[in-house]
Write a structure and sequence with these properties.
It is a single chain. The mean pLDDT is 90. The chain is mainly α and 274 residues long. It contains 17 helices and no strands. It is 74% helix and 0% strand. It is elongated and about 70 Å long. The chain has a domain at 189-274: Serine Threonine Protein Phosphatase 5, Tetratricopeptide repeat, CATH 1.25.40. It has helices at residues 3-10, 13-18, 22-35, 40-52, 56-67, 73-85, 89-100, 107-119, 123-136, 142-153, 157-170, 175-187, 191-204, 209-221, 225-238, 243-253, 262-269. Helix 7 packs antiparallel against helix 8 (107-119) and helix 12 (175-187) packs antiparallel against helix 13 (191-204).
């Protein structure tokens, strides 16, 4: 297979990957590698195709080979993902660090690095990576979304509020940013402001369980008990698995209304008079 033929074949890989046909991309890449085992692009496409097929252990070797042909944040990011998803977490973190330190980093490197650190509950490190990412990629607004979430993880609701507000300035109406802003306001004890944000979510998606649950919490804290109970009942009608969480929330917000008796609260949730 000539170089022109190889390049022509590999040119079909991005479309195959983006259109959900990783098996086709794998076949193309393997065809090229059968005649040119060290083709960097074919190694990368093979690794990505294997990752998308949830075969990270197989993806490590071709991606390691591709990384050996020169610095590329794209290759390093996918190698880190393959290592992480095959259980080699510390090695993955090393490659994520390299990928995010490049002069022109791959945007997904920051998202995947932070996701990995959050999964390890290394929230301070995740925040540091995001702050660095904002300097390297100022036009990437979803870094503010992730920063807000990490600040909530760290119990820093004021910083979270600022991050979500920045994202909403750039992308008005973004649902996850609205929800995040509501969560930050809830953590700060601004129950009225938080309720307003959760209502915005429910205006678009009346079956959003997280928004219904948090709205119920806000309304009860504001003394609007019946409205809060109605929101929690709606939560359970959509997803009964939340019952234990709802009961705990009502006990914490009861303020003596039911003498903190779970049985009485359960009766109210079921529409019965205790």
């Amino acid at each position: 297979m000539s170089l022109n033929v190889q390049d022509s074949a590999l040119a079909r890989c991005p479309a195959a990957l983006s259109q959900g046909r990783p098996g086709e991309a794998e076949q193309i890449a393997r065809g090229v590698l059968s005649t040119n085992p060290q083709h960097p692009a074919a190694l990368l496409f093979l690794g990505v195709a294997l990752l998308l097929q949830r075969r990270p252990g197989e993806a490590v070797a071709p991606l390691e080979q591709a990384a050996g042909f020169g610095a590329s944040s794209t290759v390093e990011t996918h190698l880190a993902m393959a290592l992480r998803d095959s259980g080699q977490t510390e090695a993955a973190l090393t490659w994520f660090e390299r990928a995010t330190s490049r002069r022109r980093p791959f945007p997904a490197a920051f998202r995947e690095f932070v996701t990995t650190l959050r999964g390890l509950r290394r929230f301070a490190e995740a925040e540091a990576v995001l702050r660095r990412g904002q300097q390297a990629l100022p036009a990437m607004p979803d870094l503010d979304l992730m920063l807000g979430a990490v600040c909530l993880d760290r119990g820093k609701p004021a910083d979270a509020q600022a991050a979500f507000a920045r994202m909403l300035t750039r992308l008005p109406g973004h649902p996850e940013a609205i929800f995040g802003l509501g969560s930050a306001l809830l953590q700060r004890g601004d129950f009225a402001g938080a309720a307003e944000q959760f209502r915005l979510i429910l205006a678009r998606d009346p079956r959003n369980v997280r928004a219904l649950l948090n709205l119920g919490h806000c309304l009860m804290e504001l003394g609007r008990w019946e409205e809060g109970v109605a929101s929690l009942r709606a939560t359970l009608a959509i997803d009964p698995k939340n019952r234990g969480h709802v009961l705990r929330m009502m006990v914490s917000c009861a303020h003596g209304r039911f003498w903190l008796r779970r049985s009485a609260i359960a009766e109210i949730l079921d529409g019965r008079t205790p």
